[in-house]
Every structure is written in structure tokens, then in C-alpha cells.
Automatic annotation (TrEMBL):
Protein's name according to its UniProt entry: Spore protein YkvP/CgeB glycosyl transferase-like domain-containing protein
Stored InterPro entries: YkvP/CgeB_Glyco_trans-like
Gene3D superfamilies, alphabetized: Glycogen Phosphorylase B
Domain Spore protein YkvP/CgeB glycosyl transferase-like: 185-324
Length: 330
């Protein structure tokens, strides 16, 4: 007990406000990533089906349909009561860092945490409705630092908040997504994710040209997804809105070859044909599938390069240490 008390005093105290804190939830893995560097206390907020979340979705609805809140931002106060954090295990004056992570989208009362550095990590900035929620329901001006997960949104968040805004991409959980070298390659191609019309169109192109290939196309839980990636010669990424999504980091973290749609942001972090490869249209995708199925050596070299890159730079532990370092706490 004495050792734990000394450790508590030595390490910074982080209050993480997040959603989806169930085991295997993204909030759980973010909390876990801070454990090496800090004492972490988690306040997990429910959303989606709660009345509280529904109330705070109203500003986004108004903003995206009639743009009222752009002209009259004070209207959001009608729908935006202050949410007070009740956390009996922790005194506000003991907190060094308050980190609020998207998709938490309500106006949180941060005033009790006078000594703490207040940080918001906006992750779904590529979705317009989420962006408006951040702008009109978050009181971004109350934060000391705002991180955005997508590079193209830096300027907009700076203009709205008037605060320091920095780029912090998504990170992956390296204990889940990792190489499993003992697995055989039973799939020629795989895609793990929700099924949309756009993605089905790509699948249809692939099947029409390569009707003999073994393909996995569908959803899976994280541990199962990692096994599928490790059992695949080529893993596809088809992002919904031309964004750098989490799947890019997870596939590379599994140590497998990734073929992703050509997104500008992907190419700011990774080098095509070295860490992964990209396609611009269906024809190019089909040509590259044909090429890489024949070129196992090239495929494996690229996969190894991508794995080393994400393991060194893009884990959730990397993101946690960056946030603490920027706050002067690491």
C-alpha cells in the first residue's frame, strides 16, 4: 500500500472522460494506454440511447439543416446545460490533466478542475454532424488544448475555439492487433468492417474479375479481426469519407499487407509501396490485387515496413505519451 501511495504522488493524475468503457471498448484501451505514464481515473458517459445524448444532438441537427447556430451560436445554450462531473474517488484539485475523448459531445463543467490542464481529443471530425456537435455543444473555449484526428480540420477548429489546436491521429491497441505468424493464409483478400453500398460495389468488381479467390468480407470483433488479417494475403481498406480511419493502423499493426483507397492524409503518414499501397479507382484496385497476389516477397516486405512504422509511432501508448508530453507532465 505504501508503494502505491508513493507511485500515486510521483505520477500525474489523469481524469479520462470517455464512452464505451466496457472490456474491449475503445475507451478501455485509451485508459490502458495511460497506465504506464500516469494514474488514470475514468468517468464513462453513456450515449446514443440516453436522453442526455439526444438533447445534445439537437444543436447538430439545427446546424446542419438550417445553419442557425452558425449565425446565432448562443442558441445552443438552450439545448446545452452544463454537465457536472461527480467523481467521489477523486478531488478536483488533485487532477493534473482532464482528457475528454470524442464521442463525448456535451458541455462539461470543467471549472472545478482549476489546476488541471483541460484537453479535448476530437476524433470524428470527418463527419459533418459530429463537427457541428463539437462546435456548438462542447464549449471548446473551456479547453487548453484541442486535438483533431484528421488533418484537414485543423483550421476550422482553431477558428471556432480560438485555442491551441494540434493534429493527433488515431492510434491502435498493440496488444490486440499484432502478428500471429503461425496462422496460414486462408484468405486471398479480406475486408473487415460494416457493409455499405460503396463497399459492396468494390466487392462486386473483385468477384467479377477474380471469381476463384477466397474472400472474407464482413464484420468481426477486434480479436477475431486480427486473426482474419493474419490469415489474409491482402487486406483491403475502403474508407467511407476518404478519411484516415482506424483500420489503417490496425491492419498495419497486425503485420499484414494493406491496400487502401488513396487518401491524402494516409500519404502524409505512410509511403505508398513502402509501408502499404494505395488505389485510386476500381480498375487500379483490381490491377494491384493481381500484382500483389503474385508478388509475395514484395507484399511481405511492405507489410514488415508498415508494421515497424506503426509499432514505433502510432500505438495508443504513443498518443498517450504525446498528450502528457505536450501538457508538460511526461
Amino acid at each position: 500500500m505504501e508503494h502505491q501511495e508513493i507511485r500515486f504522488k510521483e505520477l500525474p493524475v489523469v481524469l479520462l472522460i470517455t464512452t464505451n468503457f466496457s472490456l474491449n471498448g475503445y475507451g478501455f484501451y485509451i485508459a490502458k494506454s495511460f497506465l504506464e505514464f500516469s494514474n488514470v481515473f475514468v468517468y464513462s458517459q453513456s450515449h446514443d440511447l440516453s436522453l442526455f445524448y439526444y438533447i445534445h444532438s439537437k444543436p447538430a441537427t439545427m446546424a446542419t439543416t438550417r445553419k442557425l447556430l452558425i449565425k446565432f451560436p448562443k442558441l445552443s445554450k438552450i439545448f446545452n446545460p452544463s454537465h457536472k462531473i461527480k467523481f467521489p474517488l477523486l478531488k478536483p484539485e488533485d487532477v493534473d490533466l482532464v482528457l475528454v475523448v470524442d464521442p463525448v459531445i456535451c458541455n462539461i463543467d470543467l471549472h472545478p478542475f482549476k489546476k488541471a490542464i483541460k484537453v479535448y481529443w476530437a476524433q470524428d471530425t470527418h463527419i459533418e454532424e459530429h463537427k457541428y456537435l463539437h462546435f456548438f455543444s462542447m464549449n471548446l473555449q473551456d479547453y487548453d488544448v484541442i486535438y483533431v484526428a484528421h488533418l484537414k480540420d485543423l483550421v476550422a477548429y482553431k477558428q471556432v475555439s480560438g485555442k491551441k489546436v494540434a493534429y493527433l491521429p488515431l492510434g491502435y491497441e498493440s496488444d490486440i492487433y499484432r502478428p500471429l505468424n503461425q496462422l496460414e493464409k486462408k484468405y486471398d483478400i479480406s475486408f473487415v468492417g460494416s457493409i455499405t453500398q460503396q463497399r459492396l460495389q468494390y466487392l462486386d468488381h473483385i468477384k467479377r474479375r477474380f471469381n476463384h479467390l477466397k474472400i472474407y468480407f464482413g464484420s468481426a470483433y477486434p480479436n477475431d479481426a486480427n486473426k482474419i488479417y493474419n490469415s489474409s494475403k491482402i487486406v483491403l481498406n475502403i474508407s467511407r469519407r476518404n478519411e484516415l480511419n482506424l483500420r489503417v493502423f490496425e491492419v498495419l499493426g497486425s503485420g499484414q499487407f494493406l491496400l487502401t483507397n488513396a487518401v491524402e492524409e494516409v500519404q502524409t503518414l505512410f509511403n505508398p509501396a513502402y509501408h502499404l499501397d494505395v488505389y485510386s479507382n476500381a480498375d487500379e484496385l483490381l490491377d494491384k490485387i493481381e500484382f500483389y497476389l503474385k508478388e509475395e516477397t514484395s507484399r511481405n516486405e511492405i507489410a514488415n515496413n508498415g508494421y515497424r512504422e506503426v509499432l514505433n509511432k502510432h500505438t495508443l501508448e504513443n498518443r498517450a505519451s504525446q498528450i502528457l508530453r505536450d501538457a508538460g507532465l511526461y
